[in-house]
């Protein structure tokens, strides 16, 4: 008698397939199902909820027409198991991009904040390596780069969730972690790296045997951010060490389309998938956006009143520098508003930062943060995003408000604008697609200035915090690029100091030195990153940029520029150091005469030595002092000139050496490029004496160095030596 076959679901059937069978099936399914390049699968939609896969409404064949759920995708059962039960139905960006990315195309994906871009790249990363049967011996198969440590951590968690049934290995490489040595030992055997650019480059520079020549898929999350000037040097150095033949996925809510940027990444016919391009608004529809005009000296009062009025809400507050974050957090904590307060900025230790991020995800509280939290972070259920300091541009605004109203949830945002920043409101209203922001009138806030000033008296350490907050805020305005919006001269500076509780307005030296300021656009764009990794790269790039994510306020200033020395103690300290340095220079550069001793062993001053040489008896003929001084001066000039020439020659030699090195490397790399697949790893190895400083080779920088060196020897040596000689003359007179 025939036994009836047990009924089983499609999923179970698939589970019975061996890995090899499943991969074969997926490959053929993907191959058969590749839509025409350029076809946006959403264009065929919306499919009816029960549409069978492969049939559109009109009955014609289109493999993705009916796909709405993850389970309908040609992805492994292990990934489906990782997605369920949390993720069932795809979001727009997932539905639009996955068919393309799964079949290996390069993607430029743009979709509103909180719309699910993370899964849109995590799934193809896992699937690509799974289908290639990637194992520990294959090394790094995928790199996911994020601009900040917290975001990298978050992506890593998502990767772990979705990939938990796979046997791939993954690692989180971010700066600030102490176990670098342990990391170095493991990193080469990891299959997927989630990292910040600095730490990845640190491994490329320092870790023996670390190489990425087999890389299959590269992802840049917050791609426009990573491609901007702030990360340029790191990214270029990283890209130069990756194989050109790879899949590249770029995702962001504010995507770049710059041909130059894309050329840097060698994208091949990328699909530009912008699912919300047709949308009426650039921000989530469920987001209510308000702006309020508030004078600078009323900002803290208004913020305090706002917090007191919303004690049951989870509030994320953006300030422009970490010193402001510190100050506002510290004083408000002392004033006890009745809701837990937290702060997040790039100067905090990595473990504290991570803990704060996690706590804020869990707890109804107020988080004061710099832009380190503005991109990508998925704090759950934030009720309000309050921007106390105006964002530097529209993308920054979009990312900040995007921390609320995520994935179909509602949220509210409030932007404080000073009267001088009204232009920002006009700009926000003018963009296409629109930002539906409304202007609201502020109620009379409760004043906390008096309380703050008594706090500063009681806690003198706060005084310093307040001063620093004051100075860095004004500097940040001063250094902003958009002068239509940011104008430090229009601000009520004295009132601002009072509002922070300061009894004396700190000096603003940078305003006086305005004329000396060279404000390159890269320096003012954003702050930094990822103090990320205190890797060499940052020193090398001291010229380069001011980035935002992690090192904000210090970054507001070009650190190498003496015209931006901080106020107060630090300024004094640095002046002292400068003086010392000058003296040192002089000590190493004597006056161009041999040191002579008299019979008692005392040093004979140079002029006296000169006189001795001329008269033979050590006596000085006052009538000839001027003449001798002139001679000495001439001698010094000649010596100075020689020094300069020598220094320049040294620089030139150094540059030539660097150039030769680079040329050799390029030639080797080109030779490698023409080789077959098998030579890939060799190619990379050669290309990678890598790890040496390709980024040193910057003619412009060298010129700057030359000029600086020349200037230094002019201004320091000659002038000081003249002064010293005069002093000597005078002392001899007397
Ligand atoms: N298909 C889905 N079903 C249910 N929830 C989802 C889905 N996709 C994503 N989510 C959830 O939506 C939230 C936002 O997702 P994600 O962080 O990927 O957004 P994003 O587009 O990357 O945002 P941002 O632009 O701010 O980086 C997350 O909590 C995520 O778990």
UniProtKB/TrEMBL annotation:
Q: What is the uppermost EC class here?
A: hydrolase
Write down the EC number: 3.6.4.13
- Residue segments, region Disordered: 31-51, 519-544, 643-717
Example of a GO MF term:
hydrolase activity
Query: Which regions are flagged for Acidic residues bias?
Result: 669-683
Q: Which domain of life is it from?
A: Eukaryota
> Which InterPro entries does this UniProt record tie to the protein?
DEAD/DEAH_box_helicase_dom, Helicase_ATP-bd, Helicase_C-like, P-loop_NTPase, RNA-helicase_DEAD-box_CS, SPB4-like_CTE
UniProt KW keywords: ATP-binding, Helicase, Hydrolase, Nucleotide-binding, RNA-binding
Q: Name one GO biological process term.
A: rRNA processing
Q: Name one GO cellular component term.
A: nucleus
Q: Can you give the residue ranges of the Helicase ATP-binding domain?
A: 98-273
Q: Does the entry feature the keyword ATP-binding, yes or no? A: yes
Q: Which family does it belong to?
A: Belongs to the DEAD box helicase family.
- What is the recorded name of this protein? ATP-dependent RNA helicase
């Amino acid at each position: 008698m025939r036994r009836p076959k047990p009924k089983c679901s499609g999923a179970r059937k698939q589970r019975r397939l061996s890995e090899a069978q499943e991969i074969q099936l997926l490959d053929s399914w993907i191959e058969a199902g590749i839509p025409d390049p350029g076809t946006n699968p959403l264009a065929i939609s919306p499919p009816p909820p029960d549409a069978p896969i492969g049939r559109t409404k009109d009955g014609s064949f289109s493999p993705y027409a009916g796909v709405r759920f993850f389970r309908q995708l040609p992805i492994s059962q292990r990934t489906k198991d990782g997605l369920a039960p949390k993720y069932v139905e795809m979001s727009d960006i997932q539905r639009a991009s996955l068919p393309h990315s799964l079949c290996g195309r390069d993607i430029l994906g743009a979709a509103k904040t909180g719309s699910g871009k993370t899964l849109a790249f995590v799934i193809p990363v896992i699937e690509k390596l799974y289908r290639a049967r990637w194992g520990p011996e294959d090394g790094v198969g995928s790199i996911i780069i994020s601009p900040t440590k917290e975001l990298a951590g978050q992506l890593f968690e998502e990767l772990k969730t979705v990939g938990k049934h796979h046997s791939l290995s993954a690692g989180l490489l971010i700066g600030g972690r102490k176990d670098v040595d342990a990391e170095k030992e493991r990193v080469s055997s990891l299959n997927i790296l989630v990292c910040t650019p600095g730490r990845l480059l640190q491994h490329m520079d320092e870790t023996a045997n670390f190489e990425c020549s087999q890389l299959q898929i590269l992802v840049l999350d917050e791609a426009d951010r990573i491609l901007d000037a702030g990360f340029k040097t790191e990214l270029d150095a990283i890209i130069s060490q990756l194989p050109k033949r790879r899949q590249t996925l770029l995702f962001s809510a504010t995507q770049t389309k710059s041909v130059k940027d894309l050329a840097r990444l060698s994208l091949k016919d990328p699909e530009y998938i912008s699912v919300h391009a047709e949308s009426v608004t650039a921000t989530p529809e469920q987001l209510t956006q308000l702006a309020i005009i508030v004078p600078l000296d009323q900002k803290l009062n208004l913020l305090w009143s706002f917090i007191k009025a919303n004690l049951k809400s989870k509030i994320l507050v953006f300030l422009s520098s970490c010193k402001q974050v510190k100050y506002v957090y510290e004083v408000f904590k002392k004033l006890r508003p009745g809701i837990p307060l937290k702060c997040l900025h790039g100067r905090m230790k990595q473990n504290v930062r991570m803990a704060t991020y996690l706590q804020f995800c869990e707890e109804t509280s107020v988080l004061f943060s710099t832009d380190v939290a503005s991109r990508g972070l998925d704090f759950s259920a934030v009720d309000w995003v309050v921007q106390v300091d105006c964002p530097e541009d529209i993308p920054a605004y979009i990312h900040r408000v995007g921390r609320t109203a995520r994935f179909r949830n509602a949220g509210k945002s409030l932007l404080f604008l000073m009267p001088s920043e009204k232009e920002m409101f006009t700009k926000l209203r003018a963009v296409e697609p629109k930002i539906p922001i409304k202007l609201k009138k502020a109620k009379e806030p409760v004043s906390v200035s008096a309380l703050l000033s008594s706090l500063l008296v009681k806690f003198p350490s706060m005084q310093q915090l307040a001063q620093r907050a004051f100075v860095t805020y004004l500097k940040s305005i001063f250094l902003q690029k958009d002068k239509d919006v940011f104008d430090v001269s229009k601000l009520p500076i004295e009132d601002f100091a009072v509002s922070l509780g300061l009894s004396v307005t700190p000096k603003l030296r940078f305003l006086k030195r305005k004329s000396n300021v060279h404000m390159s656009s890269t320096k003012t764009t954003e702050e930094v990153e990822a103090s990320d990794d205190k890797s060499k790269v940052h020193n090398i790039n001291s010229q380069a940029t001011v980035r935002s994510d992690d090192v904000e306020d210090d970054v507001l200033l070009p650190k190498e520029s003496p015209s931006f020395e901080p106020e107060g103690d630090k300024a004094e300290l640095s002046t002292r150091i400068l003086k010392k340095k000058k003296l040192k220079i002089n000590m190493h550069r004597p006056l161009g005469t041999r040191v002579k001793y008299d019979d008692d062993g005392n040093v004979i001053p140079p002029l006296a030595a000169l006189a001795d040489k001329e008269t033979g008896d050590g006596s000085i003929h006052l009538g000839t002092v001027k003449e001798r001084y002139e001679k000495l001066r001439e001698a010094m000039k000649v010596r100075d000139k020689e020094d300069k020439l020598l220094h320049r020659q040294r620089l030139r030699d150094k540059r030539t050496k660097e150039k030769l090195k680079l040329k050799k490397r390029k030639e080797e790399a080109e030779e490698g490029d023409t080789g077959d697949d098998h030579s890939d790893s060799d190619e990379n190895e050669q290309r990678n004496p890598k790890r040496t400083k390709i980024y040193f080779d910057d003619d412009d920088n060298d010129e700057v160095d030359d000029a600086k060196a020349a200037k230094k020897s002019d201004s320091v040596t000659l002038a000081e030596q003249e002064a010293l000689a005069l002093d000597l003359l005078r002392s001899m007179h007397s």
